[in-house]
Amino acid sequence: MAMSASEITNMIKEALPDADVRIEDLRGDGDHYAAYITSAAFEGKSRVQQHQIVYAALQGKMGNELHALALQTFVPNS
Amino acid sequence: MENIIFERIKKEIAENDVVLFLKGTAIFPQCGFSAAVVQVLSQLGVAFDDFNVLEDNDIREGIKEFSNWPTIPQLYVKGEFIGGCDIVREMYETGELTDLLAEKGVSFNAAA
Lengths: 78, 112
Fold this sequence. Notes:
The complex is a heterodimer of chains A (78) and B (112).
Chain A: H1 5-15, E1 20-25, E2 32-38, H2 47-57, E3 68-74
Parallel strand pairs in A: 2-3
Antiparallel strand pairs in A: 1-2
Chain B: H1 2-15, E1 18-22, H2 32-43, E2 49-52, H3 57-67, E3 74-77, E4 80-83, H4 85-94, H5 96-104
Parallel strand pairs in B: 1-2
Antiparallel strand pairs in B: 1-3, 3-4
Helix pairs in contact in B: 1-3, 2-4
C-alpha cells in the first residue's frame, strides 16, 4: 500500500515537531515522492545521520510501503 | 546467523576501496536509483566493486541493518558508508564527492 503525502508529513512532524516539510508527488501516482525537510534536529549532523533521523520518523515504512522518497534535508538558517 | 552476514559485509567493504551494493550490476542496473549512482561513479571514472543484492537475499536484507539504512543502493568508500542515491547525487553536484574520494586516496578522473 502506498502512502499519501499527508501521512508522510504527519509522521515526520510527529517525530520532528519543528520540521518544515514540503512533499512533492513526482509522478502523481502516490508512490514516488520528493521530500524537502528543514529541522533544527539536523544541526551538526552528517547527511547520512540527517536522513537516518527521517527514516526513523517513518518507522520502517521507507523501503516498504514507501518505495521512493527522494530526500533533501536542511538546517534552518539562523 | 546475522553475524555471519555482517562478517561477509565487513569483508566485502574491507577488501574493496569502493563498493556499491545495488540492484543489478554496473553494466545492467535494474533499478533507477541504482543506475543513478552507477552513472555518477562511471562519470568520475571510479573503479568500484558492484555487489548485486538481487542475487543474494541475505546481503540484501543484512546491508539495510548493517548500515541502518532502509534502501538500496548503498555506497561504501574505504569501509565508510557514504549514503544512498540522494546523498551521492547531492555530493556529486556540490563537488563533495570528489573531495571525499581525494581525501580517501581513491583515484578518479578529475576532468569529469
